[in-house]
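New to this. Explain the following:
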Amino acid sequence: MSTIDENHDIGTCKESAATYSDYRCRLTGVIENIISSTEDKKHYSHIDYEPIPSEDVIVEIVEKIREILFPGYFNREKVDPVNMKYRIGQLTSAVFDLLSDQICRAIRYECFKYDLPCSDCTRRGYEAALVFLEAVPGLRSTLAMDIEAAYHGDPAAKSFDEIIFSYPGMYAISVYRMAHKLHELGVPLIPRIMTEHSHSLTGIDIHPGAEIGESFVIDHGTGVVVGETSIIGSNVRIYQGVTIGALSVPEDKCEDMRGIKRHPTIEDHVVIYSGATILGGKTIIGAGSVIGGNVWLTESVPPKTTVLIEKPRLIYRRNGENAACLEEKDTLP
């Protein structure tokens, strides 16, 4: 390389360094503006000495709980009869420490935010985490019934293992059941973070406040919505795109509706096919009923009732023919 080229390269590098320095100096003003914006109460910031719950840690807790609920399925290390006590003990201890800390953070955050009297958040965190872990055997029994119901109602399922490993509905139900238990214990914020994490992965949105009985099946699942005050009985099966939701509420009435039953009740042994929308807190779908695909319901249905949309008239047109001259027929000849 010639001396001229070398000098040119050096000059280019010096120019780049000067340009970078200029932008870095301007960045100082940008940072100051961002910091100033955090003082605006209309914006959302949490700059405090007390930490709020961590979404990443809560997701970690969800996965560790799944390892406890299904030992040997999701563990990175092998679980065998010799090391099982050690593995389960280690996991359970880790969940207790992580979960109690996150619960404490959530309770303390609400106390400070709403200026509530001290409620001994540290002790409550320990107590709620321990009560939750005491409920694990019962959760395992309920999930076992969910798995069996999924298997016996789906000819495509080759094994229980396939359902546990790969069915998005099973993942969503598993996370819902752990979140619902924490919801029952009065734990703020964390249950919703859990179910919204599951929602982001599966497309299935189940509010942790919903009450759902045993042997619950979500088949395929994408687009399913189950609202906060929904009550679902046992042996219920729903398909993709089903909404068990609330009627729209005017903005000025929203506060009045908090805590009021706004979502339907689905009784035992009901099947709801894809795309059905069932709305309203007074709507009850009676036991043993079948709700067909794309049905829209805002009123109750008696037990053992099938609700269907009238079969549409299909029009068949042969490709390549002049559409204006075609005769519309119900079926092809």
In short: The CA atoms of residues 6 and 12 lie 10 Å apart. Residues 3-37 form the longest helix (35 residues).
